[in-house]
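During the no-cost extension, the postdoctoral fellow (Dr. R.K.) reprocessed legacy sequence entries with the updated structure-token encoder. One reprocessed record is reproduced below for audit purposes.
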Amino acid sequence: MVGDGACVGAEAAARLHGLVEANPPVITVLAPHGRKITGRPGWVFSQRAGPLDSRGMPPRTNVEDIVLDLCATGRAETWSGG
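Re-encoded structure tokens follow.
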């Protein structure tokens, strides 16, 4: 779909890290800027400038970035801890 350098982000990454208990309504995938993206139903693809700091398998954004993303979208109330 988007290849090397891509990673899971937002609520899907939060689920993989154990920050939320519920499965996300869509899977968010972040790709390096300029990458050709092929869409799929149930998936959201986004491009970010600069390197993506990802960890784990499958690659996912780090906890710090997830917290910032969830706060920015007003979805922080979905965390299992808050």
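The first helix runs from residue 10 to 17. The radius of gyration is 12 Å. The remaining legacy entries will be reprocessed before the final report is submitted.
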